Amino acid sequence: MTATVTPPAARRALTRRAVVPWLFLAPGLLLALVFKFWPMAKGVWLSFFDVRPFLGDKWIGLDNYTRVLTDHRFQDAIGHTLVLGIGQSVGAILLGFVLALLLEGQARSLKLLRTAVFLPAVTATAVVGELWRLMYYPTSDGLLNSGLHLLGLGPVQFLDNPNLALWSTMAMGIWIWAPYNMVIILAGLAGVDRSLYEAAAMDGVSLWQRLRYVTLPAIRPALMIVLTLATIRGLRVFTEVYVLTGGGPAGSTDVWMTRAYTLGFTRNDIGGASAASVVLLCVTLLLTVTINHLRKRGEAR
Amino acid sequence: MSAPVIDSARPAAPDTPAGRSTGRQRTTPARFDTALGWSDRPGFAWALRVLLCLLALGIFAAPFLTIFSGAFTANPSGSSLSFLPHDSTLTNFKVAGERGIWDYLGNSLVIAGGGLLLQLVVCTLAAYALARHRFRGRALIMMLFMMTLMLPEEVIAIPLSLVLGDVPVVHLDLKGTVWGVILPLGAWGFSVMMLTEFMRDIPTEIEEAARLDGVGELRMLWQVVLPLCKPALGVAGVLGFIMIWDQYLLPLIAAKDPTDYTVTVALSILRTDPEVGSGVVLAGAVIALIPSLIVYLLLQRSLVTGIAAGATKG
After folding, report:
1. Residues of B in contact with A208 (CB under 8 A)
2. B96-313: which CATH number, 3.10.310.30, 1.10.3720.10, 2.30.42.10, 3.20.20.80?
3. Most buried residue, A42, A174, B146, B158, by CB count within 10 Å?
4. Is residue A193 part of a domain?
């Protein structure tokens, strides 16, 4: 209504009010555009080309995708990624839940314990990788092997045995993420209404039933979030594998992203590596949307 | 799924045999503090809990002792590690220093400091606009920032490395400079979302009163909004630092040659160096560990709140 008869000064104030938020947003949007969205678009674009430095790129349609998806090393990597991602997520959630139940409480000693147990989650993955490499040292005087030696078990080739390396990597992943999940689950546990526990005790409910029917439903949202975060993280796992095994031995721990990395940076197959990244991006997006949808439906019910 | 279960289960529970058998415990308030009903009096359950706590400590914290003990032990063969150093020495640190570990640490500190500063400024500005202004397309911008979380370095590594070598429009080569690592870290969706949520809760009355006094936008942010956001800024700061310190792929692809590496990436150089033992690698690991350890121990509360809050808000 006022717009039709706005005096010039007021109109200037209006445009200023409209411009101001964009000035505040500009740095963030610019950085996100240049270093996130532009590379994403470029990745999608390159995935349709045979990228040849100095010769010019050649459009080859979906060839990169068919090549990557039919490559048996990529097919192996899908299996490893799923095993590692699912095993690591489930293991870290279960262990995180156990840790949360164990370390829940207000006592000062428990707070200190939580501080110590949370250390793996704040340590840089590269440092954790070096630590576990030494714990997994393959001779009988390595840290884990000397423990096994006491039990009379021979030195285990944790990282050099192709049948074992993936599980060793998974153990490290669980070690990193269980404390992280513990914190989220603890926040969920803190939100459980204490009077429910009291009522359950009054009703003479066993501890197991109390856990099953009072605690678990109450922390279900927290668990769902942990699961979502863990699944997506599991699919794009890279650093853990790269620093611990580098994908070896004999490709037995090669996951989707280490494979794409090798293709792109070691073999200089930019087109193929881009196609692999786009596939991963699509799967992650699809998964996030699905989980969010399921979560919304679950909440609505 | 389990929502109907809880209603049907509660009245039914007393009739089940299991429910009756354990129903005779004394009701002390402490029993209702925790999900498992841990008692704080010495007894079997208490002893079991102490034992399990020690086990957890052994699994999750004790390995860190080996990093320190190994770093201060002179053991060129390097395979024997223990929780306490045999004969303490600083040789490992000297050797690591000769291999340039302090330069790598310098790179790391510059990147962490600069990256965190840029990230906090950029995210605060964006959050202020998103939380305290109404404008067309706000929901879309929110979604864009949320989407940046879906595009971690792993997923866009290959094209990002091309972009870092030749930034669009301005055609700068950022590879081999700290900017190649710092700039991509600037817009972090998580910080934007968290700060936006927090700033939204500031009552408008405070802002309106300041506006009547003729306070401009920048002063409003700096002198009115920011002082009220200190807890959220603490969370953004500590989580941002941990996130930047953990970066691996980004410094790797932004480097032109190994002297550009951060200390965490440089650990692999020490490891593959045939002339140095694992004691030196562990000395490097200690150096890479200490800054994040200090930040964690000082700002632990912010960190834990941040993880819990970020997770519950999605």
Report:
1. 18
2. 1.10.3720.10
3. B158
4. yes
